[in-house]
Amino acid sequence: MLQLSLRHSLILLLITVFTASQINGCATNPVSGSPEVVFMTEAKEIELGRTNDVKVRHQYGVYDNPELQAYVQRVGQKLAAQSHRPGLAYQFTVLDSPEVNAFALPGGYIYITRGILAYINSEAELAAVLGHEIGHVTARHSVRQYTAAMATGTVGAIIGAVTGVRGTQDLFNVLGNAFLSGYGRDHELESDRLGAEYLARTGYDPQAIIQVIGILKNQEEFEKQRAAAEKRAPRIYHGVFASHPSADQRLQEVVAEADKFKTGAIPTIARDEYLNRVDDLVYGDNAKEGVRYGNSFYHRDMNFALDFPAGWQLENTPQAIRAGSPDKTAILIVQAEESTKELPPNDFLNLRMNFIALDQAGPVEGVSMPSYTGVASASPAFGRRRSRVATLYFKNRRFLFQGATKDPGTFAATDTLFLSAIRSLRPLTDKEKKLAEGMRVHAVRARPGDTFASLAKKSPITNYSESLLRLINDKYPDGELQPGEFIKIIR
Hints:
Blueprint: H1 2-21, E1 26-28, E2 35-37, H2 42-60, H3 66-81, E3 91-95, E4 102-105, E5 109-113, H4 114-117, H5 123-138, H6 141-163, H7 171-181, H8 185-202, H9 208-230, H10 249-256, H11 271-278, E6 281-283, E7 291-293, E8 296-299, E9 304-307, E10 313-316, E11 321-324, E12 330-338, H12 345-352, E13 359-362, E14 371-376, E15 387-394, E16 397-405, H13 411-423, H14 430-435, E17 439-445, H15 452-458, H16 465-472, E18 486-490
Parallel strand pairs: 3-5
Antiparallel strand pairs: 1-2, 4-5, 6-17, 7-8, 8-9, 10-11, 11-12, 12-16, 13-14, 14-15, 15-16, 17-18
Helix pairs in contact: 1-6, 3-5, 5-8, 5-9, 6-7, 8-10, 15-16
């Protein structure tokens, strides 16, 4: 017991010393004006944002539409000028991603995806999303997260040194999760309060915060149902709360507080202005990265098509196409690279497979292009499992296919599906070239007799088209159109 007491005393002493050593991290919160202990200077905060801005742009890509980029930047700068930290060099960037998301890095780097722009219906709602993210920056939420993580990690290390129990954590992962997945109820609510204030000071109606959260909440609920049916994780915007804004009294209260900051002029909504700005916005996959359509994949610029098993889910990344069975027990990975030197298909495949011996080796039956295939004893997804591997030389590229099953007993039956997908590699037909252009948002006037059901029949969206059209027009779940109404359609 004496030894235990001495150990506890030593822990308390070390924690006290640590806390005292960090007092010089005391700063003034830009929003509240109150002192707070933080372990990051503003210069470091800006540096962190600048460094990770490069990574974000590389990972997501910047949407290639200078006019839209300038429009979002202009709206964001108006809000930032009325914020608690107007001196920061804010940057607002539209990312080339179909995800419905927006987030902020420290130092004023704010991002909004083209995916979320499809669901917004006015400039005021755009300002609401940007204002919310500005609120995270002005309140220094990421810095406060960093401080909490630093304190936990350092104190945990002290305790670990004394007790032998490890208590460290990856601070980068903590911050990265906060940037992309939200900061918790209190910080998100504070960002909504600040966003509403910045809207009011800039001449927008702060109620746009409530409106856009309602739209995104509907999208979130629909996405959860769709993800459950497709057996995948939902892709949702981090700022949305558990309940609908119409039932969230605290949210209603903090937004109402912004009324005292109104300029007195008629609030700016700018619905038509916004819809004109997003006319021709890419919806879903971007043609330059390849387009998924049903169980097929079309790449416009590389001029190829592939068909995958019906019902399989396709994921397109810069590194590979991944096709997975609905129960996630089978996967087919497709990669392509430029053919920079002459290398026979069998030598290339052996090289890529590290010369693992292949069973059933030989050319792919049923194709005229140079090819080679076989069954390896290891897979890229399930470890020591049999794997169908193949390479096809198509134009000036080499395609590498790797397919495996989690259950070894299902490999033989699934292998026929792998081979069918491999053999489907071909140039685009004239019809497929049109599909390979992808889908876009168009702003139109509803004609007499137009309904969401009738528009859905004309839409290229293969699944849930009527629900999605209602969602992007804030008419979910059962709203209808009025003749002459300015709306968004997908074609």
